[in-house]
């Protein structure tokens, strides 16, 4: 799974560091993965290390029932869920080809899965039983399915393996999903395609459990017209594709799931959407959004944004009551690519949790981040475009045609503010961000792009590439200027304790800034609380713990380097940057925070900085060198 994320070569040492194992273990894993696809290649090997092969996805799907401890654990849970009178430890050990002691150890791990499910594991002599409601058992099945689907990606064959090979075949769900989306559209709803796979998973679980005479109770009519029409749609599709009716309890549950998870009202007046909205939710969302806009200096306090987010939050309350959290397959990429947007979403999530009592997971925070990102994209200012001058010696209307072509093809990237039609322009007097020229300049430069009089696709690509370089260069130049102000030799540690958890590392690095008078112990505690909301490991190598609220006496960053890597959240990191921001540097927050993460998103740069940054001076030199390219 690690190799499939970026498709690049990785050495055994870097893979081992990311997984927290030895290079020898990595070689064993590669051998085992390739054995899953006889005649194929799950992992390629070469002088540069390893990378995902053509059959990587097939290998991930090809795990047998007990090929790994996780597979065996999931098989054991399925057996417990299917057996009303429980399982016999010795018979189960024989079935899974392991010892009774191994099954005893696995049962201890099962207890660890039961938190928040309202299920209990009872043990009497050699028999073990699960006790709890059908709804609680389904939540456990949902957890198993999510555990097998990396980063929220949906795979019906994997789901069938989770439910058991006797469950309804995956081929039934493709047509079911298509007709469900079409039917919801006919009823006047917009469908969230990112969430619908999760709903299909719940429908698959419901169909499997009903086929085993384990239907949900309840489902009496409540007079809700929307729930009734969606229930009728699911019932019709279930009979058509599964050959069964799911029953009133399951239909009511699934209709509620759809209403609160994957649909939004169609086009219509805002007042109609507001009629469905709890005034308390709208008030709280408005206050939290306005606070976020002020805290981060972002333009999100708009009525349309508040209304859409409030409708989303109202659905969140329903999901929270049922512990029916929505998965988001974009969580990882949103967090690493748009850390600033994700941070605004964490701030909003924290405010909602405090005022509405909604505990939010990373996937739910990612949906809020998508709302924030959408608003910021719509409100992006035109002055953020790069300016450009076209140099095109006059010949009839040639320069006018060229400008028209540039505006049409590159209007989202550059703003043409001048056209030079002389064959000998004053090159030194052109001060725009880019110069797009049809003639050779006397001296080439990073911002000068040679184009044809009649713009070609290759010209467009070159201009876009140059614009990207200019933007990145500016961002990193600002970052270098800021970082040189915020680092100090006294707030640098090389050799973080590999056994320390996040809280211990935060306290150790925060203590350096407390001793320097930058922050107090309360700031350190609030940083720990922020970390509990959502991991600050924004890349595979970097964590940036910080508090919500810019209350430091001055902005400062304490750096800790771990070699080998240390566990952080669900992954491992090699660099921890404890960041404390002051109120006076509020405007610099975005530059430092987002661009610092960008630098550490490049694996080669990280390895260079970690390997050569043996002390503070060397670390700063390498960081500046990487920024300068």
TrEMBL record:
Q: Which UniProt keywords apply?
A: Repeat, Sugar transport, Transport
Q: Which PROSITE patterns match?
A: PRD_2 (PS51372), PTS_EIIA_TYPE_2 (PS51094)
PRD domain residues: 276-382
Q: Where is the signal peptide?
A: none
Q: Is-annotated flag, keyword Transport? A: yes
Matches recorded under InterPro entries: BglG_antiterminators, PRD, PRD_sf, PTrfase/Anion_transptr, PTS_EIIA_type-2_dom
List the SUPFAM superfamilies. Phoshotransferase/anion transport protein, PTS-regulatory domain, PRD
One Pfam assignment: PRD
Keyword Nuclease assigned to the entry: answer is: no
Domain named PTS EIIA type-2: which ranges? Answer: 485-629
Protein name as it appears in the record: PTS sugar transporter subunit IIA
Q: What species does this protein belong to?
A: Microbacterium pullorum
What high-level taxonomic lineage is stated for the organism?
Bacteria, Bacillati, Actinomycetota, Actinomycetes, Micrococcales
